[in-house]
UniProtKB/TrEMBL annotation:
Annotated source species: Nezara viridula (Southern green stink bug)
Alphabetic keyword roster: Proteasome
A GO BP annotation: ubiquitin-dependent protein catabolic process
PCI domain sequence ranges: 239-413
Listed name of the protein: PCI domain-containing protein
GO cellular component: proteasome regulatory particle, lid subcomplex
Superkingdom of the organism of origin: Eukaryota
Amino acid sequence: MAVGNEVPSSLKIETLISEVGQQINSDKETVELIKLQVKEIEKGVLKKEPRFILRVVCTLPKTRKKLNRDVFMSVLPEYYYLHDEVFKWIPSKGRITNIDENIIIPILPEIDSYLHLLILIYLLDCGNFMVAVPCSNKLISKVCDQNRRSMSLIAAKAYFYHSRAYELTGQLEKIRPFFLSCLRTCTLRSDSLGQAVLINCLLRNYLEYNLYDLADKLVSKIDFPEKANHNEWARFYYYISRIKVTRLEYSEAQKTVTLGLRKAPEKTAVGFRQAANKLAIIIELLLGDIPDRKIFNEVMMRKSLEPYLELTRAVRDGNLTNFSEVLEKHGNTFRSDRTFNLILRLRRNVIKTAVRGIGLAYARISTDQIAVKLGVDSPQEAEYIVAKAIKDGVLEAVLIPGYMVSLEIGDIYRTMEPTKNYNKRIAFCLELHNLSVKGMHYPVKKYESRLIPDQDIEEDFDIDFI
C-alpha cells in the first residue's frame, strides 16, 4: 500500500467521531441557551423589569463564541417564516429543524432585534463585512422605529456593532450625522446607556480621521452620563486622554488614562489595556518620568510593549542614536498604534536627558565635545541646545565662548518642587477616594426601621447587602 494513501487508524476515526458528537452537543446547548435568553427578554418586557434584559446582554460575550450556522438554522425557524429577510444573511447550507410555519406567532420587537443582533455579531466574527453592513442597517432601522424603553439595552449594543461594521469596511464617516441625531434623541429620552455608547462611538469616529478639534468640541458640549457602566467610562477616559495629549495637556492626559485603566476589567479586555498602557507610557515619558518596570513584565503586555521598552531605554539613557534606531526599527508598529507623532516629540526629552547627564559628569566641557556626544551637526547647534536647557531649568550651568561650565547643584528641598509633588499626589488620592465612594453599593433605606426590632434590621441589611 502506498504511504500517501494510508487509511486513518481506528483511533483517529474515534477521535473524529467524538469531536463531531461534542460539536453537536455544544450546538444543542447553544440553541437551548438562546431560547432561554428569548424567554428572559420576554419576561423583562412583560414585567417591565430591565434587569432581565440586562442579564441577557451581559452574557452576550459568552454567547457569541458559540454561534455558528447550524445554531441559527435551528433557532430562527421557530421565530421567523422561511421566506423572511433574516435568512438571507445566513449562508444557505445547514439543517433546519422547524419548517412548520403554522405554529409561528408574532414575536416582540425586543426579541426580533436581539436575534438580528446575534446574526450581525456572527457575520462580523466570520469576516463577512460587506454582508454585515446591510444587515446592520436593517437592525438599526428596526431599533429606531420602536420608541420603547425596554429596547434601550439592546439598542445600545446595536449602535456599537453598527459602528463596528462601518469601521471594518472603511466608511465610518458615513454614519457620523446619523449618530449625532441618535445622540440627540437618547439625550431627550434620558437613555443613559445609549448616550454613553453613542458618545464613545462618535469620539472614536472623530479620532479615526484625526479630527481632534471636533472631538474636543463634542466633549465640551456634552455631559457623560454618570449611570454608564465601567466599560463605557473606561473607553471615554481613554479617548479623552488621546485628545488631551494631542493638545499638549500632558498632566490631564495622564490623569484620564490612569482612570481609564482603573475602570477597565483586570483579567479581560486585553486589547484595551494594551492600547491604554502604550498611551500611558508615552505620556509619562513626555512628562519627563520613566514608567515602572512591572508594566512591561506583565504576561499579557510583554510582547506588545516590547518596542515601547526599547524606546523607554533610549529616552532614559538620553541617547539620540539609539532613539533614532528604535524609530526606524519599530516605526510601522508605532504608526499602527497611532503613537508615532507623539513619539517624535520625545526627541526633545532625549536631548534634555543627555544634556543633564553631561552637566552632571563634567564641570567644564567644550561645545565641540557636546556636539559629538549629542550627535548634532555643529557646535553652534549644541550651544543653542544647551542655552535652551539652561533657560528651561533643566541644567544649572553658564555658557562662555566655546565652553559650558556647570554650577553647583542647589538643595531641591529649599524650592517648591517637593510641595508641588505632594499636592499632586494628595489630589490624586482624594479623587480616587471620591470615585470609590461613588462606586459603592448601599442597602435600600428602611424608613420603617424604628418599628422593626434590631435583630430583624440586621437580617434585612445582610440580605440587601448580598
